[in-house]
Design a protein that fits this description.
Blueprint: E1 2-7, H1 9-12, H2 16-35, E2 39-44, H3 47-63, H4 72-97, E3 104-106, E4 110-113, E5 125-131, H5 133-137, E6 143-145, E7 151-155, E8 160-163, H6 166-174, E9 178-180, E10 187-192, E11 195-198, H7 205-215, E12 220-224, E13 231-232, E14 240-241, E15 244-246, H8 247-255, H9 265-277, E16 282-286, H10 291-295, E17 301-304
Parallel strand pairs: 1-2, 1-12, 2-9, 3-9, 4-10, 12-16, 15-17
Antiparallel strand pairs: 4-8, 5-7, 6-7, 10-11, 13-14, 16-17
Helix pairs in contact: 2-4, 3-4, 7-9, 8-9
Length: 305
């Protein structure tokens, strides 16, 4: 089967040494899936990592004005680079431990968005550190007050429309090469004539992963999170674990408000979008420890048509 595995940025960690340790743990599970003969494509989040990169340049500028503000698309590209390096290194090592000699590559992926996406009119995605109102007024960004804790930079979160490097990803996969792409939702770009121009935005990695899975006709979109299943009435006495549900059920539960924005909600919505586009396929939401059982239908939350 062709399986897209979407890893969360928070699961990897924000300290490089811890991130590599987590990448090694994750690689053990991914390598076993590959060993079973599946074609695996990996995507990942970058929330903590891109925030730290952005923060480093912002704070560096306070100390030395020769340290320039780094454009946000470039911050995203940096995070794709070093997260991809950790993952491809760890997965390659684990494959060799299993006697499997496969190439693993990470791809700095540009994802096209619509420059007229309504999200650009109302940036809501907070990034970076907190500032006083006075400090915020001096910064060349859109700044908003965040829950009484100060002001933070905010950027738009547009819907992904097209994966610029899709052709390369397809060809590599068809030739047995394991790809790591769409990191952090990809680098957001808009197309003007024949030029792709980076924009200050964050694309949700689950939506980007759903787009990739649909574009390659994947059999499974597997969204990895911190918990083994999606649930209703989360953290209440009436909590209900979801095992096997239709997209109609998923839509109903989502409309009833069971899933939180910034947490399970985008995962459910990305899963719905994928299955709607690929009715013969399924989406699975689970933890990294459950992936093998989830592929076999014995674990996780499985969403199907």
């Amino acid at each position: 089967m062709k399986i897209v595995i979407a890893l969360g940025g928070n699961a990897l960690g924000d300290v490089p040494s811890i991130q590599y340790e987590n990448a090694v743990k994750t690689a053990k599970h991914i390598a076993l899936i590959i060993k079973e003969g599946h074609d695996v494509l990996i995507t990942h989040g970058n929330g903590p990592q891109v925030g730290l990169i952005n923060l480093a340049f912002t704070e560096g500028n306070k100390i030395n004005d020769k340290v320039y503000f780094m454009p946000f698309p470039e911050c995203g590209a940096m995070s794709e680079g070093y997260i991809g390096y950790h993952l491809q290194n760890a997965i390659k090592q684990e494959l060799l431990n299993l006697g499997i000699n496969k190439t693993v590559v990470s791809i700095n992926t540009q994802i096209e968005v619509d420059k007229n996406d309504p999200a650009f009119l109302n940036p809501t995605k907070p990034i970076g550190s907190f500032y006083t109102k006075e400090e915020a007024s001096k910064l060349p960004f859109t700044m908003k007050e965040d829950a009484g804790r100060g002001f933070r930079r905010v950027v738009a979160s547009p819907i992904p429309k097209n994966i610029v490097e899709l052709d390369a990803i397809k060809k590599l996969t068809d030739n047995g090469i394991i790809t790591i792409s769409c990191g952090g939702g990809g680098i957001p770009v808009v197309k003007e004539d024949n030029k792709y121009i980076g924009v200050d935005a964050v694309i949700d990695k689950d939506f980007a992963s759903s787009l990739l899975a649909s574009s390659i006709n994947a059999d499974i979109l597997m969204i990895i999170t911190a918990v083994p299943n999606a649930v209703l009435n989360y953290k209440t006495d009436n909590e209900i674990i979801l095992h096997d549900i239709s997209i109609n059920d998923a839509i109903k539960y989502n409309n009833e408000g069971h899933f939180k924005a910034g947490s399970m909600k985008p995962k459910i919505e990305a899963a719905i979008k994928f299955v709607q586009s690929n009715p013969s396929s399924k989406a699975v939401i689970t933890s990294i420890d459950e992936v093998l059982d989830a592929i076999k239908g014995c674990s996780g939350t499985i969403i199907h048509s």
